[in-house]
Amino acid sequence: MTVTVTLLPASDGQRRLRATFSPQQAGFHIYSIDLPAQGVDGLGVPTRLSVEGDLTAVGRPTADRSVLHLRPAGLTTELPVYPNGPVTFTLPVRQTGSHRADVIVSYGACSEGRCLIPVTGEVIHLSLG
After folding, report:
1. What's the burial of 81, exposed, middle or buried (CB within 10 Å: 0-12/13-18/19+)?
2. How high is the mean pLDDT of the chain?
3. What is the torsional sign of CA 120, 90, 115, 125?
4. Which region holds residue 74: left if phi is over 0, alpha if psi is between -120 and 50, else beta?
5. Domain coordinates of the chain in residue numbers?
6. Is the pLDDT of residue 13 over 70?
7. I want to staple 87 with a disulfide (CB 3.0 to 4.6 A). Which of 8, 82, 91, 111 is the partner?
8. Residues 6+ apart with CB under 8 A from 111
């Protein structure tokens, strides 16, 4: 079971990159982009989206879903997560060349009862030509 990450340029002609993180099984969520790097009390893997190469980020990514605060069973810690299912992030970018960019993603996906192995620093090559 995995999370699929789909990249698309914005359809309205603006310089934005859209990345959709889609858990491939019902009942799984991903963690907020606002989760601290080390999680909350060591729990959770923050979602990250950045670019290198011929794209430069000119703002922070925003999500199309609102954050929920989840309290895992038996804990007092609340974790910021998105609702179960796909979440699309929009990252404002500036194109600095015409060849290639690398999109770097990190995320953790969990359900009520289990978590997938987290992905950190996965590089997705994107052709700009």
Report:
1. buried
2. 89
3. negative
4. left
5. 3-127
6. no
7. 82
8. 25, 27, 28, 29, 84
Q: Which residue has the tokens 């999370």?
A: 3
Number of H helices, E strands in the chain: 0, 12
Which two structure tokens, joined as six digits, stand for 95? Answer: 């194109």
| Cβ 3 vs Cβ 21: under 8 Å | yes
Q: Is 20 helix (H, G, I), strand (E, B) or coil?
A: strand
pTM of this structure: 0.89
CB 109 within 8 A of CB 3: yes
3-127 homologous superfamily: Thiol:disulfide interchange protein DsbD, N-terminal domain (2.60.40.1250)
Instruction: List, for residues 51-76, the tens digit of each pLDDT value.
Output: 999 899 999 999 999 999 998 878 88
Selection from 37, 42, 103, 90 nearest residue 63 by Cα:
90
pLDDT digits (tens, 9 = 90+) for 80-116: 999 999 999 999 998 888 888 899 999 999 998 889 9
